[in-house]
Structures are given as structure tokens and as C-alpha cells.
Amino acid sequence: MTSTRVRPHVARVLERTHAVLLPFDGTLCDLFAGVDTAAIAERIRSGLFAAGHRMTLLTTMVTDPLWMLAYAHDVGRDHGATAEGIMRETETAAAVTAVPTPGIHEVLRACQAGGRPVAVVGGICSAAMETHLETHGLRHLVGPVLGREQLRMTESRPYVGLVRQAVKAMGLRPPACTLVSRSVGGMHTAGDAGLQAIGVVSEHGRRKHLATGGSVVVSSLPRLAGALLAVPMTTAH
User: Does residue 173 share a domain with residue 112?
Assistant: First the structure.
């Protein structure tokens, strides 16, 4: 069996990695691939219209369902709750059909083999994320799952707060954790939360963009899995 060659700067990060955080949508899977998200936004908007709410022309043109969800919450508590119901229904249905990102099984198994716990975080409802993990036989490889319910929207950077909650749930400090993401946004979130970051090249993020700010970048999730198996933890947390 050929051993995996790990670049020194990747090895240095992995040596200090005692836990891994994975953003759900975009890294663990592409939840809404093939889903008409504009139709979800329209369902929320139609509910607001039916309740007598009137909105600006620009708002009637929004196609992002999460934006419309936040808008419904701003309109009122009851409207927000109705919109949350629509989102939970559509997210949970999508979670069943969404295909895990190629290589994510290997990464999760490598984390387990190396004694590195994994937390999954995201702006998706926790029930949908749990459904996806259970459906695809991944739940036993993952620890805490923190979704939209744990987002504190009053914070200036709610996703940074969500990541910090996940770190706390694992009983660790941010420098002992590494966030693995296929997006540039994930790299920024990790830096703001005080975590290490590993970017994974994909259609969501090119190498030169993921490396902005000094983040380590690998070419694929299978390559990362091999590196996780090859590099043991060497620094106490």
C-alpha cells in the first residue's frame, strides 16, 4: 500500500487538529442541487401576501429562500414561524435526495480512525441535517450537529458564533479545531472564529481564492482523507 505524501504546511495544520468542523451545505453535500429554490422563496412570499402583507417591488423579485425567511421573521413572529415551517419541510425533503459530496465518507472515516471528533454546522435546520446523515449512513461518524435554530441573529457575525458553539460542544478551544470548507466564506468564518482552516478545491472555491489569508488548501476530499490518516495529532489541546 502506497503511503500518502502530505505537504509540510498541510501536515502542520493536521498535527494541531483535534477536531474537524464541516459546513453542511456546500461541503458535506449540495442540499438544493436540482431544487427550484426560487419556488421556495415564492411560497414564503405568497404566504405573506395572503396574510395581507405588502412589500416593495424589489422584495417581490427575490429568489433566495433564506433571504425571504429572514424577511418574514422581520415582518412578525407568526409570519416567521410560518416561513420556518415551509423551509423545514423543503430542507428535510431535499436532505433525503441530496448526494453526499464525493470523498466525504472517507474524510469522516479518517477522522474517526484518528480520534478526531467531527461537528456539522450550517444555516439549515438541524432536522434536515440529521435526516441527511441518517439517510446516508453517516450519523455514527458525526458528533454535534448545529443548525439554524442555534444561530443568534442578534450577533454581528452569527455564523462565527455558531462555529464557536460547536467548538464548545466538543469541549475544545478554537485553535485545536479545523474547519474544512469548499467555499471562501468558510475560510473567512474559520479565521474570524479563531480556528484553523483547510480549503478544498471545487466549483465553489478555486485554490488561489481559498488560500486568501493564508489558509491551507488541498485538491480534493479524498486527498484530505489520506492526509488525515497519515498525520497523527501531536499537540496537546
Answer: yes
Q: Are residues 147 and 190 in the same domain?
A: yes
Is residue 15 located within the same domain as residue 59?
A: no
Question: What is the phi/psi pair of residue 119, to 5°?
Answer: -115, 145
**Number of helices (H) and strands (E), helices first, in the chain?**
11, 6
Domain boundary among 97, 122, 140: 97
For 21, phi then psi, to 5°, come to -110, 135
> In tens digits, what is the pLDDT along the chain, a chain of 237 residues?
345 788 999 999 999 999 999 999 889 999 998 899 999 999 999 999 999 999 999 999 999 998 999 999 999 999 999 999 999 999 999 999 999 999 999 999 999 999 999 999 999 999 999 999 999 999 999 999 999 998 876 666 789 999 999 999 999 999 999 999 999 999 999 999 999 999 999 877 678 888 876 779 999 999 999 999 999 998 654
Q: 10 Å Cβ neighbour count for 57?
A: 6
Contacts of 37 (CB under 8 A, 6+ apart): 63, 64, 65
Together in a domain, 172 and 206: yes
Single pTM value for the model: 0.90
Return d(Cα 232, Cα 96) in angstroms, integer. 34
Q: Do residues 165 and 150 lie in contact, with contact meaning Cβ atoms separated by under 8 Å?
A: yes
**How many other C-beta atoms can be found within 10 angstroms of the C-beta atom of residue 11?**
16
